[in-house]
Amino acid sequence: MQTYRPNKWIDEGLSCQWVQMCHDLRRSLELGWRLFVRDFSAKYRQSLLGAAWVVIFPAFTVGVFVLLNQSGVLQVRESGVPYPVFALFGLTLWSLFAGLVSAIAGIVGQAGSLIAKIHFPRIALVHSPVLSSLAELAVRLALVAAVMVYYGVRPHGSFVLLPLLLLPLCCLAIGTGMAFSILGGVFRDLPNVLSLLLTVMLFATPVMYPMPDSGLLCGLNRFNPLYYLIEVPRGVFFGGRLEYGAAYAWSVLLSLAVLLGGWRFYHVAMNRIVEKL
Amino acid sequence: MRPLEPIIEAENLSKKFCRGLKQVMIYGACDVARDFFGIRTDTAHLRSGEFWALREAGFHVERGEVLGIIGPNGSGKSTLLKMLNGIYPPDEGQITIRGRVGALIEIGAGFHPMLTGRENVYVNGAILGLTKKQVDERFDRIVEFSEIGDFIDSPVRHYSTGMYVRLGFAIAVHCDPEILLVDEVLAVGDARFFNKCTNRIRELTERGTTIVLVSHNLWLIQTLCDRVVLLNRGRIVKTGAPVDCAFAYAELEPAAAEHTGLPAEQAPIVVRHMDIRDQSGNPASVVEPDAPLHVRVGYLCRERTVRGHVFLRVTTSDGYPLYTSYSSAMEFPPGEGAVKALVPAFSLLRGEYRLWAGICGEKKEAERYHERQMKLTVNPGERFPDSRYGVFYNRVEWQVEGRRVSRINARPNMAAG
After folding, report:
1. Residue B300 touches partner A, C-beta closer than 8 Å
2. Distant-in-sequence contacts of B35-38, Cβ < 8 A, 24+ apart
3. Nearest CA among B238, B223, B232, B111 for reference residue B168
4. How far apart are CA A70 and CA A60, in angstroms?
5. Would you say the pTM of this structure is higher than 0.90?
6. Do A31 and B36 touch (CB under 8 A)?
């Protein structure tokens, strides 16, 4: 039996809402997988280079940075691993974050007519971008591995922890993306704002270069959770050392909060958004 | 679950929308923020710029019933259906649904143009709540019903509109929901597929599926539905038998302002008045099927003699022509006069129609001078209690071959065709 009435969730209480959200999540898994298969098989169907596009973009970006570095325009402090490996690895993690955020932020806009016409667990829309981002991550990590072989760099033995260490980064990205997807449904200028923000953040966060010792960038990034969420996995991967333990822990907590908050926001707001699509 | 409880119950249901785009954004943001922080929103009052799309609608649907929803454009039909489907939350009132809902609000929503029909069947099935195994079981039946054939392995963007609709409908009706919501989707296919779909809907109801059907096709509504809800400007105007609601609907529709003739001042001849008389010659506006109908058309001819025809036309209340009858060629001398028309047995069944009387030149339709119209109500008549399956009446003589069939009742059954 299903009832619909205004303020239903407020009457029934917060815990009931979380139960419903988990129920929806469980129910959505099959559909989510189907949508992922749909999106993934449709994505490269009419492109010449197909899935190669996944690695072309980071390869070229890193290529430019390496060029800048070699010609002396970009001075980068020694970080223990050859610069191309360092930059490519950082960019790969960054692409995971940025790809997740922007892909999830677009789901409500893209599935607008579907949302407005069919009742299904809305959370199912999130699975497809998450799975495609993970698939792209795997392809990009293969590129990283190839470059590491070329430069003769070996990862530290604790590199197996990488999936675990990337989890908080994914949580932050998914939570942010879900919140943006709803807001983007109401405010149509948000996708532009988001892509601008992501570009600025890519250069402002020490992803393609090590953290500077002093200056404005250093001061700001002390409070940038993204920096810790990318730098710590990189440090563990190459050197096996866990730096900034406390800051990383706080960042992990923050990303969990963002994930849960974004999820709830997505769930609560979807009903309100649907009539505005 | 008690079987006697209605499968759908809607009480005092209201839904508001907002006109201005800026206000939509502001109100949307406010509502979302309140929901997120768990603050109760007072949805029962209109804020500036809002209007009620649906107001205080209350009805129920019993298990296995077919409920039709009719009404003019913008009367809230689709809004109501989307609320029943749980897409729109109500702003007031409550909906209780005691069954699994399947909806056909837009056929092919969720089809991906690049994917083949086969892939889309699986995706669409999943969207409608089927598992892969369930789609596997139904796949052959879906393809057979849709009549897509080998095209099932082509991308759907190469499909014709008909194929697209057929496939979408086939998936939705094979999901076996307990409640099926259908929104004006049958209008797209060709006649054959339309029949196939209506038959499928009948089959589903025989198996106990409850159906809520939104349509502008009053004929479809009358043949399929057990009960009808008539909406106008967001309110339920009438709930009841399909025929009664169809008539009430026809009353709502303003007369089609069809006037293609010349303006009265320029016409060489005008229809001054028209009236309907019954058998004894008294004015009437109500007629019965199979009874004689007298129409008197008064004209005024200006300056010169006009050659032409008088015509009589019956249209549906929304202006769709049913038949036209022209008089033989006449000469109208200047001045006033009248022409009488006698229809020996008026053959339309119970309903609301419009009767037009006009005068045209020798080129008939291409030279319509002037015309008038009036409302024409056809009463059920004692001999035609059930006119559900037709519009007009034809005398039919039945003969029995052999001796296997015998007549029980001496009174011949009235058939409509």
Report:
1. no
2. B35/A9, B35/A10, B35/A268, B35/A269, B35/A272, B36/A264, B36/A265, B36/A268, B36/A269, B38/A9, B38/A10, B38/A14
3. B111
4. 15
5. no
6. no
In this complex, is the C-beta atom of A216 within 8 Å of any C-beta atom belonging to chain B?
A: no
pLDDT digits (tens, 9 = 90+) for B85-127: 888 889 999 999 998 888 887 777 778 888 889 988 998 888 8
CA distance B122 to B118: 7
DSSP B19-51: S-HHHHHHHHHHHHHHHHTT-----SSPPTTEE
Residue in A101, A39, A111, A103 with CA at minimum distance from that of residue A277: A111
- The verdict on a CB contact (< 8 Å) between A30 and B132 is yes
Exposed/middle/buried for residue B96 (C-beta within 10 Å: 0-12, 13-18, 19+): middle
Rounded to 5 degrees, what angle do the CA atoms B69, B71, B77 make?
55
**Half-sphere CA count of B280, side-chain side, radius 13 A:** 1
Other C-beta atoms closer than 10 Å to the C-beta of A91 total 23
**Scanning the structure block, which residue is given the tokens 């604790």?**
A158
DSSP annotation of B116 reads: B
Secondary structure letter of residue B90 according to DSSP:
P
Report the side by side order of strands in the sheet with B293-301.
Answer: B283-284, B269-277, B293-301, B335-343
pLDDT band at B262 (very low <50, low <70, confident <90, very high): low
**Is the pLDDT assigned to residue B258 strictly greater than 50?**
no
ipTM (interface pTM):
0.79
Give the C-alpha separation, B22 to B248, whole Å. 38
Question: Between vectors from CA A78 to CA A72 and to CA A84, what angle results, nearest 5°?
Answer: 70
- Whole-angstrom CA distances from A276 to A144, A272, B169, B183 are 43, 8, 26, 20
Place of tokens 């009387």: B357
Distance from CA of A129 to the nearest CA of B (A): 16
Coil, helix or strand at residue A135: helix
Q: Tokens 């107001």: give the residue.
A: B55
Separation of alpha carbons B261 and A261, rounded Å: 67
The answer to whether B3 contacts chain A (CB < 8 Å) is: no
Residue owning tokens 């707001």 = A269
The A residues from 129 to 148 touching B (CB cutoff 8 Å) are none
The answer to whether the Cβ–Cβ distance between A120 and B98 falls below 8 Å is no
CA distances from A98 to A189, A200, B25, B75, B256 (A): 18, 11, 26, 45, 58
User: Are the C-beta atoms of B57 and B80 separated by less than 8 Å?
Assistant: yes
* Beta-bridge partners for B372: B357
Lookup: tokens for A93: 């993690």
